[in-house]
Amino acid sequence: MTNSPTPTPESDRPKDKKVTPLRCLIGSTISGSLAFGLYSLTLSIVQSFAAKPLTSNNALVLRIGSLVRTLVMGVASLGTFIFSFVAFGLILLAIQLLLKQPSSTEKKL
């Protein structure tokens, strides 16, 4: 028998982790910096692969080398896209939260 943790209902979760525009912007900054780092890595990978072409007479070696290069560039590009997309989404969420904050007259009601 395994002791799997039971999911807690949302009413039992701590309420201190609210989504705020500041938290969104901090997360966006972190994600954006990771995206920039991965973009720089992707550029250096592409330049390195362009500077060192595959040299072989064996067709299988050329195909496998090309496949590995494509996979490495694809994974680096995918990471760049994901972190960029998350950063952009968090910025949009921060804007949405700023626009939907109740005004001071609504708080008094």
What does this structure look like?
With 109 residues, the chain is an all-alpha fold. The protein has one domain. It has helices spanning 21-51, 59-99, 104-108. Helix 1 (21-51) runs antiparallel to helix 2 (59-99). The chain is elongated, with a radius of gyration of 23 Å.
Short description:
The chain is mainly alpha-helical. It has helices spanning 21-51, 59-99, 104-108.
List keywords for this structure.
elongated, 3 helices, mainly alpha
**Overall strand count:** 0
Element string (H = helix, E = strand) = HHH
- Average pLDDT, to the nearest integer? 87
What is the count of helical runs?
3
Percent of residues in helices comes to: over 70%
β-strand percent reads under 5%
**Model regions low in confidence, pLDDT < 50 over at least 5 residues:** none
Structural class by secondary-structure content:
mainly alpha
Question: End-to-end distance, in Å?
Answer: 54 Å
Overall structural domain count: 1
